[in-house]
Design a protein that fits this description.
This is All-trans-retinol 13,14-reductase. It catalyses: all-trans-13,14-dihydroretinol + A = all-trans-retinol + AH2. By secondary structure, this protein is α+β, with helices and mostly antiparallel strands. About 45% of the residues lie in helices and about 15% in strands. The protein has a seven-stranded mixed beta sheet, sandwiched between helices. A three-stranded antiparallel beta sheet has the order 5-6-7. Helix 3 packs across helix 10. It is globular and about 65 Å long. The mean pLDDT is about 95.
C-alpha cells in the first residue's frame, strides 16, 4: 500500500497530473504539519523523539530548535539538499535524450562540474552527514528517511536521499479512502480512452514474432491461457520479472539486456505486520503521524549488524520500525468502519532468511516457517506496544508478511518493496541513461519504478518517461502547457 505521498499540494504540477489521470475524482487528505517523528531508543524509557515538520523553511528551522548549537550543520544540509534537488530533471533528460547524445553528455565529464545532482550521486548519505556534524542524534535524524527507499546510509546516494527530503518538504498527503482509490479512479479514465483493465489475469510470457519483435502477451485465464496481441507492449513488472521471467531465452540473452541486468541488483527484502484493532483512533491514542523507531542513533551500524545475523538471531535485533496508522490518516475511515482502527508496521528482512520455503504453497509452508514469522511479529509488537500502549488487548487481527509474502502477492523476485536497489550505482549517470524505456526488443518498453525511482511518484515519472519515448514527444511539456491553458481559461470565468 501507499503510506504517504509528497508534492500533492493544490496547484502543484504533480497534483495537476494526478487530477488529470483520475478525472479529478481522487481526493487527498493532508497529514499533520508534523508528518514524521523519529524515535531514538525506548519511547517509554530514556529514548528521545524528534519531529519532522513540513514547510520549506519550517523543516530546517524546527530541526534547529531541536538541536540548538547545530545551526551551521543544518544550514549546510539544507544547502546540499537544495543543490542536489535542483538537478533531479537530469533523471528524465538522460532517459529521454537519444542514446548517443546521452552518452556524449556523460563522457564529456561536464555533468559533475555543472550539476550537484551528478556530483553528490557518488557520495554516500553517511559520508555527507558524518562530515556535517559529530552529534550522533542529529546524524540519525538527518538520515532517518532511508527506509522509504530501502538502502543503508553507507550505501545510499546522498542525491537519492535529497530527492526524498525535497519530495516531502511541503508536506505529506494520503489518498482519501485508502490506496485502492487510486486504481479505482484511474480505471474509468483508461476505459473512457478506449483501453481496458483486467484483474486476476497474470501475464505468463511476452510473445515475440519471427523477427524478434514484441507482439503480445500470454495471460492466464482460470486454467486456460489466452494470447493478447498488440503493436506495443509496456511492462510495469520490473526489470527482473520482464527480462528473466517473461522474455524467451533468446531475447534474454541479447547483449544490451544482459548489460542492463549486470548494472542492477534486487533491493533489500521487507517484512510487514498488519494490525486490525477494536477501538477508534481517539480511544486507542493513535496518530496520523508516521513513526520511524530506532533502538539507537547508529542507524548504519545497527542495520549492518542486523543484516549479518542468522535468522534465529535477527528477530530480537530489529534495527528499525516504520509504524503508521492508515485508518488515522484517512478522514473517511470512521464513517466506513466506526469503532475500528488499523496499524501497519514495516521493517527490513533478508530474503535468504526465508528462502528455504520459497517453493512451498502459500499458507502451507509448515510450522518452522510460521514459528520464524511469529518470532518477528512478536518482537515487532513488543516495540509497538511501547509507542501505543492502549492497543494491548484490543487486537482483532494480526498478520505478518515475509519477503516470500511479497514475492507471492506483488511478484517481487526477492521480496523487495521498491524494485531494483536504490544504492549509489543506480544514481550514476551511466546507469540512469542506460535504464531507459526503450528496450533491445523492438516494441517492448519498460515503465514504473524500475525505470525511474521507487514509490508512487517515482513510478509516475517512469510512466511519463515511457509515454514520452513511445509517442516521441515530451509529455512533461504537454502537462505544463495543459495546466497553463486550463488556468488561463479558469481565470477568465
Amino acid at each position: 500500500g501507499i503510506h504517504y505521498v509528497g508534492q500533492m499540494e493544490e496547484g502543484s504540477l504533480m497534483r495537476f497530473l494526478v487530477d488529470q489521470l483520475t478525472d479529478g475524482q481522487l481526493e487527498w487528505a493532508p497529514l499533520p504539519a508534523t508528518y514524521d517523528a523519529v524515535v531514538l531508543g525506548d519511547p517509554q524509557g530514556a529514548g528521545k523523539t524528534f519531529h519532522i515538520h513540513s514547510g520549506k523553511r519550517e523543516y530546517f528551522q524546527r530541526l534547529k530548535e531541536q538541536f540548538p548549537g547545530e545551526a551551521a550543520a543544518i544550514d549546510e544540509f539544507q544547502r546540499l539538499v537544495k543543490s542536489a534537488g535542483r538537478g533531479v530533471v537530469l533523471l528524465g533528460i538522460l532517459k529521454m535524450l537519444p542514446w548517443f547524445l546521452a552518452r556524449l553528455l556523460i563522457h564529456s565529464r561536464l555533468l559533475p562540474r555543472l550539476c550537484s545532482f551528478s556530483r553528490l550521486a557518488s557520495h554516500s548519505l553517511k559520508e555527507v552527514v558524518d562530515g556535517l556534524t559529530s552529534n550522533p542524534e542529529l546524524r540519525a535524524v538527518l538520515s532517518y528517511i532511508f527506509p522509504t527507499y530501502g538502502v543503508l546510509p553507507s550505501k545510499a546516494s546522498f542525491t537519492m536521499h535529497s530527492i526524498l527530503v525535497t519530495h516531502f518538504l511541503k508536506g505529506a498527503w494520503y489518498p482519501k479512502g485508502g490506496a485502492g482509490e487510486i486504481a479505482f479512479h484511474i480505471i474509468p479514465v483508461i476505459r473512457k480512452a478506449g483501453g481496458n483493465v483486467f484483474g486476476k489475469a497474470p501475464v505468463q510470457r511476452i510473445l515475440l514474432d519471427a523477427q524478434g519483435r514484441a507482439c503480445g502477451v500470454t495471460v492466464k485465464k482460470g486454467q486456460d491461457s489466452v494470447d493478447i496481441f498488440a503493436p506495443v507492449i509496456i511492462s510495469d513488472a520490473g526489470i527482473f520479472n520482464t527480462y528473466e521471467r517473461l522474455l524467451p531465452a533468446a531475447a534474454r540473452a541479447l547483449p544490451e539486456i544482459q548489460s542492463q541486468l549486470r548494472m542492477v541488483s534486487p533491493g533489500e527484502g521487507g517484512f510487514t505486520v498488519f494490525v486490525g484493532l477494536n477501538g477508534s483512533r481517539e480511544e486507542l491514542g493513535l496518530e496520523p503521524t508516521n513513526y520511524f523507531m530506532f533502538p539507537g542513533s547508529d542507524l548504519d551500524g545497527m542495520m549492518k549488524r542486523y543484516l549479518a545475523l542468522s535468522r534465529e538471531e535477527a528477530a530480537n535485533n530489529i534495527p528499525v520500525l516504520f509504524v503508521t496508522s492508515p485508518s488515522s490518516k484517512d478522514p473517511t475511515w470512521q464513517m466506513r468502519h466506526p469503532g475500528k482502527s488499523t496499524l501497519a508496521i514495516v521493517t527490513f528482512a533478508r530474503y535468504e532468511w526465508f528462502e528455504e520455503w520459497k517453493d512451498k504453497q502459500v499458507h502451507k509452508r509448515g510450522d518452522d516457517y510460521e514459528d520464524l514469522k511469529k518470532a518477528f511479529v512478536d518482537a515487532i509488537m513488543q516495540t509497538v506496544f511501547k509507542l501505543y500502549p492502549r492497543i494491548e488487548g484490543r487486537i482483532e487481527y494480526l498478520s505478518g508478511g515475509t519477503p516470500l509474502t511479497n514475492q507471492h502477492y506483488i511478484s517481487s523476485p526477492h521480496g523487495e518493496f521498491y524494485g531494483i536497489d536504490h544504492g549509489i550505482p543506480r544514481l550514476q549517470m551511466e546507469a540512469i541513461a542506460t535504464m531507459r524505456a526503450e528496450t533491445a526488443v523492438p516494441n517492448l518498453y519498460l515503465t514504473g519504478q524500475d525505470l525511474c525511482l521507487g514509490g508512487f511518484m517515482g513510478a509516475l515519472q517512469g510512466a511519463l518517461i515511457c509515454t514520452s519515448t513511445i509517442l516521441k514527444r515530451n509529455l512533461y511539456m504537454d502537462v505544463v502547457r495543459l495546466k497553463m491553458r486550463l488556468q488561463a481559461a479558469n481565470s477568465k470565468k
